Structure formats: C-alpha cells, structure tokens
Amino acid sequence: MTVDSIPAGKSDPGKVESPRTSLNKQLQQEGLRQAREFQQSTQSVQLSVSQTAVSNKVVVTAMEQNVVVNERRFDNSQYTNAAPEASKSLFDFETVANNVLKFVGGVVRGAAKSGADDETLTDLIGQARSGVAKGIAMAQKDLAGLMNSEISQGIEKSREAIGNGINELEDEVLGKSEAASGIMAQQLFAQNMNAEQAGLVIRTKDGDEVSL
Fold it and tell me: What are phi and psi of 72, to 5 degrees?
C-alpha cells in the first residue's frame, strides 16, 4: 500500500490522544464559546445604548418644540448638567422632568413676582400642561419603532413627575393668593360685624331707645 492510498484527514486509530492535548482542545472550544457570547452581549448593549440615546434626544426635542409658556420656549441646553454621571441611563427621565419644571417654574414664578393676577397665572400653568401633553404624545409617536420597557416607563415617569411638579407650582402661586383672599374676607367680615354691633339699638318697654 502506497502513501497515496491512505485516506486523508483520518488519524491513526491506534494513536491515543494525550490528556493534555484533550484539555487544550476543550479550553479552546470553551474560549471560542465565551468569545461568541461576549460578542453577542456587546452588540446587545450597544443596541440598547443607541436606543436610549436616540430616545432621550427625541423626548427632549419634542419638549423643546411644544412647551411654550408666556411666549418663551423651553431650551433644554440651558438646564443640562455640564458633567452628568456616567452611571445614569442615557434616557434619564428625572433630568428631563427636572429641566422642564425648572423652565416652567421660572416663567410662572417670574410672572407672579411681577404682579400677574390669578387669571394670568392660571393661563400660564395651562399653557405648560398643554405643551407637556403635546410633547409626550409627539415623543411616543416618534419612538413607536424603538419603544421598549425602559423607554416606555421612562416616558410615563417623566409625565408623572412633570404633572406633579406643575400641580405643586400651581398650589404655590395660587394657593397663597387664595389664602390671602381668605384672610382679607375674614377681616372684612369682622369689621362689618363690629360696625353692626356698634350701631345696635335696643328699644325698652317704655319706648326709649338705647344705642350700644
């Protein structure tokens, strides 16, 4: 039998693989498996980061386009931290909500300090609520193709946080006016009572009138 007649690729059946060689092969296979899993995990993380980054931009842009109070438009760049924490999610609903509330609060409180009446302040707060609602709706529509649980929950938490903040702002700027009006009403009532009591006239049995 010649060398050419020996089937290619077949090992010598009488040859026994050493334990070291077998272990090296197993380690190699395990290393390849872990490398594949790591690559898949990395790709998944990169995709998630990309989705959250895009989502954050979409939500911020939607708020900037729709939240207009007293002819002033929300600009997120004026409120963004210069060095955000790297550990936070790129879609940080707290930051989005806080920035919107800082803007709305600044406009409404400024109007209140300038002497705006309750009707004007109520209108400004209504403008804020309407703009936020439109911004959330626009963001949800634009993100329909990228929506996942994290993004969906973040948007809903943004809506809730902003809504609660605007309610507190409303109580702050209008509650004081109502309280002041109540105090004034009580003082006026007391003054009227005193006036009425001061002019009280009692008629005696003999027909005489006595003023108290």
Answer: -110, 135
**Do 174 and 109 touch, CB atoms closer than 8 A?**
no
Contact between residue 164 and residue 94 where contact means Cβ atoms under 8 Å apart = no
Instruction: Give pLDDT tens digits for 116-148.
Output: 999 999 999 999 999 999 999 999 999 888 888
Nearest of 138, 144, 140, 169 to residue 156 by alpha carbon = 140
The pLDDT tens digits for 162-192 are: 999 999 999 999 985 444 445 445 655 555 5
Q: Which residue from 163, 160, 154 is spatially nearest to 54, judged by alpha carbons?
A: 154
d(CA 88, CA 96): 13
Name 68's bridge partners: 73
Among the listed residues 173, 73, 64, the one whose alpha carbon sits nearest the alpha carbon of residue 118? 173
Measured at the alpha carbon of residue 202, what is the angle toward residues 196 and 208, in degrees to the nearest 5? 140
Considering the entire predicted model, what is its pTM?
0.59
Residue 90 burial (C-beta neighbours within 10 Å; 0-12, 13-18, 19+):
middle
What contacts 128, CB < 8 A, 6 or more positions away? 67, 69, 104, 107, 108, 166
CA 164 remoteness from chain centre: 11
Question: Are 155 and 136 in contact, with CB atoms under 8 Å apart?
Answer: yes
Q: What is the CA radius of gyration of the chain?
A: 37
DSSP result, 190-206:
HHHHHHHHHT-EEE-TT
